[in-house]
Amino acid sequence: MYSELKLYIDGQWLNGEGRKGEDVINPATGKVLAQLPHASKADLDNALGAAEKGFQVWKNTSAYDRAKIMRKAADLLRERAEKVATAQTMEQGKSFAESRMEVLTSADIIDWCAEEGRRSYGRIVPGRTKGVRQIVLQEPVGVVAAFTPWNFPTLTPVRKIAGALAAGCSIIIKASEETPAGCVELVKCFADAGLPAGVLNLVFGVPATISEHLVTSDIVRKISFTGSIPVGKHLAALAAQGMKRATMELGGHSPVIVFDDYDPEKAADTIAAFKYRNAGQVCISPTRFYVQEKGYNKFVARFTEYAKGLKLGDGLEKTTTLGPLANPRRLDAMESFVNDARARGGKIQTGGNRHGNQGFFFEPTVITDVPDDSKIMTEEPFGPVAPIVPFKTFDEVVQRANSLQFGLAAYSFTSSSAQAQAIGEAIQSGMVGVNSVAISTPETPFGGIKESGYGSEGGIEGIQAYMNTKFISQA
To answer: Residue 454 pairs with which residues in a beta bridge?
Structure first.
């Protein structure tokens, strides 16, 4: 049921013969799924050379023909959705239903980028004197090096791959070594769709070794990274040494603000389901909850009721609504958050413990009465732990929500149109959902501000990120 794991370089699938590697673990059982080969230095150099050649082919392929290949890849991904989702759930832990939706959304992203890539128009700017033509062109930036984390094995890689290919770039992607199968299956779809050799290359290995080799190469002209703030800063510094374009989608700690004029139970139903998606291992997951005093108790009660109703288990089981955490590091982190909150007077409304005697399961947890300087309120939890605290006034909650260095996503619930506009403008965040959690679609920009990064994926901005603007003045 699980995928055969290989590297993909210059149109060839390469196995682990003669290469170092590592085990891939099923987080629901703790058992080994497969051995993942690591790329050697020679493999990386071959990938760079292949991408350089592939770029010359792909940039000279018409946007119309590029779109045809991309749409075929999307169709293949949909046809293989059950297989890809199964492998992805086995390696990452999320429920099969979530995994399948991720795969289908990934196909939608490919389709959207394929079509939008055909519409990346330049423009003619009227000249100031007769006979002068001023032309603005959009040209692909070149070879891209992209790096993705373990929480969305298909979705995060496809954002980078589809955006780069739609713009006419070639790409080397290093997906997560902990969850490699989703990206392996995704790359297979592009290969089987007829993508020319070298245009898309997939490598795995020791992250620091791979990233420093690729980012510092003169061949690479664009970096795209999704991951932690410290690693993002390091890669951004490496990219800056070569004046290379970079998109950084880093960590978040998304505030949720529920005003008194909104039904607290309705808000709890909406945001709790979003909170526990993928066991909270989502960069835009709602992670610190501020509820105005009047509706606070009702919100806490309803939210806690939802958390208690979740069924922990293997993501492949039909009754499972909350899978395991992806690795044992997350278990240790959750215990640290809960212990710190408890030591600071926090009250555990439900959960707070590891679950079961195998796999990496942690109970869905709700904590109240935690101070704003507690660990859970200041550090990204990336897990199924939800702190809920009250607030009094608009100005107070805005100050508290904006007090951290993060600025990726935020959410608010209000029945007042004036207050909806005011909170949308006041929150310092790259994305804000007001009475909605739909802040990530193929056609809209996805990205943060402050230390949550810069640049966007998705939308027209996500394709422009892979293009250079050239101005030609012609007399």
So the answer is: 248
The CATH number of 254-434 is which of 3.40.309.10, 3.20.20.140, 3.20.20.70, 3.40.1080.10?
A: 3.40.309.10
Neighbours of 206 (CB within 10 A): 13
Q: Report d(CA 155, CA 297) in Å as an integer.
A: 37
Residue ranges per structural domain of the chain: 7-250+450-474, 254-434
Cα distances (angstroms) measured from residue 385 to each of 96, 107, 260, 353, 427: 22, 31, 24, 10, 23
220 token code pair: 């690479």
Instruction: Determine whether 319 is exposed, middle or buried from the number of CB atoms within 10 Å of its CB (0-12, 13-18, 19+).
Output: exposed
- In the block, residue with structure tokens 């809960």: 338
Angle (nearest 5°) at CA 249 between 248 and 252: 135
Cβ–Cβ under 8 Å, residues 448 and 252: yes
Q: Per the structure block, which two tokens stand in for 47?
A: 């990938």
7-250+450-474: CATH homologous superfamily?
Aldehyde Dehydrogenase; Chain A, domain 1 (3.40.605.10)
Say how far apart CA 89 and CA 323 lie, in whole Å.
9
Q: Which residues are catalytic?
A: 249, 283
pTM of the model as a whole = 0.97
Q: Which residues of 79-104 are buried (b: 16+ CB within 10 A; e: fewer)?
A: ebbeebbbbbbbbbbbbbebbbbbbb
Average pLDDT per run of 10 along the chain, which is 475 residues long?
A: 96 94 97 98 98 98 98 98 98 97 98 96 94 96 98 98 98 98 98 98 97 97 97 97 97 98 98 98 98 98 98 97 96 97 97 94 98 97 98 98 98 98 98 97 97 97 97 96
Q: At what angle do helices 229-241 and 207-215 cross, to 10 degrees?
A: 30
How many residues appear in the chain?
Answer: 475
